[in-house]
Automatic annotation (TrEMBL):
Taxonomic lineage from the root: Bacteria, Pseudomonadati, Pseudomonadota, Gammaproteobacteria, Chromatiales
Complex formation: The complex is composed of six subunits: RnfA, RnfB, RnfC, RnfD, RnfE and RnfG.
Record protein name field: Ion-translocating oxidoreductase complex subunit E
Function: Part of a membrane-bound complex that couples electron transfer with translocation of ions across the membrane.
Compartmental location: Cell inner membrane; Endomembrane system
HAMAP family (UniProt xref): RsxE_RnfE
Record GO biological process: electron transport chain
Membrane disposition: Multi-pass membrane protein
Listed transmembrane segments: 49-68, 80-99, 105-126, 138-158, 178-201
Family classification: Belongs to the NqrDE/RnfAE family.
Gene name for this UniProt entry: rnfE
Source organism of this protein record: Caldichromatium japonicum
Gene Ontology cellular component annotations, sorted alphabetically: endomembrane system; plasma membrane
């Protein structure tokens, strides 16, 4: 007897939370700490961070949609291998597209474009969500996850470029005499900035949890 007969699939109902959880409570970078290689390696400038975020979002959305469409056709025994083939197909498209758009950007991102294939965010969403949910909820959820990943990269890239080079998207922000914090453009700077954002994100999470607890307690007391 197949697993589908033993345990019928439980589909998620489409709600605003389907999209928003990728931005906040399940943010791939700040909440789940996934995809750390590109987060630390290519966020030395805002442009690199934006390009990597958009490329990852494209691969995430397209591969999740295809996995969701084929979820009843892919045998359980070869599902991971099938997901990797699907993801690699879209990574190849992104690889060629970035080469065609800008060789300078392609060189700046380096091998991390091809390494999108092994990004935990994408493979994790294919296995944990897209293979179990319907097409429209998968589309909305993967868009939220991709946007949350892109915003996290932008947060790091903006801080590192402003402090490390004194520019934003290549435009000078400070008068002559400004001494850039060179370490921010180096790998240790990525760790420092990521640590700062994680502290802020966790503080906001705890603050919101306390507010919800106080509100629920007041409502229970009023009853």
């Amino acid at each position: 007897m197949s697993d589908s007969i033993l345990s019928p699939p439980t589909y998620e109902r489409l709600t605003p939370d389907t999209f928003l959880r990728g931005l906040w409570q399940e943010n791939p970078v700040f909440a789940m700490l996934l995809g750390m290689c590109p987060v630390l390696a290519v966020t030395n400038t805002t442009l690199n961070a934006l390009a990597m975020g958009l490329a990852t979002t494209f691969v995430l959305v397209c591969s999740s949609l295809l996995v969701s469409m084929l979820r009843h056709l892919i045998p359980k025994q070869v599902r991971i291998a099938s997901y990797i083939v699907i993801i690699a197909t879209f990574v190849t498209l992104v690889d060629y597209a970035i080469q065609a758009i800008s060789l300078e950007l392609y060189a700046a991102l380096g091998a991390f474009i091809q390494l999108i294939v092994v990004n935990c965010v994408i493979l994790g969403r294919a296995e944990a969500y897209a293979s179990k949910q319907r097409l429209h909820t998968t589309l909305v959820n993967s868009l939220g996850m991709g946007l949350g990943f892109t915003l996290a990269l932008l947060a790091l890239g903006t801080v590192r470029e402003v402090l490390g080079q004194g520019t934003l998207l290549g435009i000078a922000l400070f008068p002559e005499g400004f001494q850039p914090w060179v370490i921010m453009a180096l790998p240790p700077g990525g760790f420092f900035v990521l640590g700062g954002w994680l502290l802020l994100f966790n503080w906001l999470h705890l603050r919101r949890a306390r507010q919800v607890a106080v509100t629920n307690g007041a409502a229970a007391h009023a009853r």
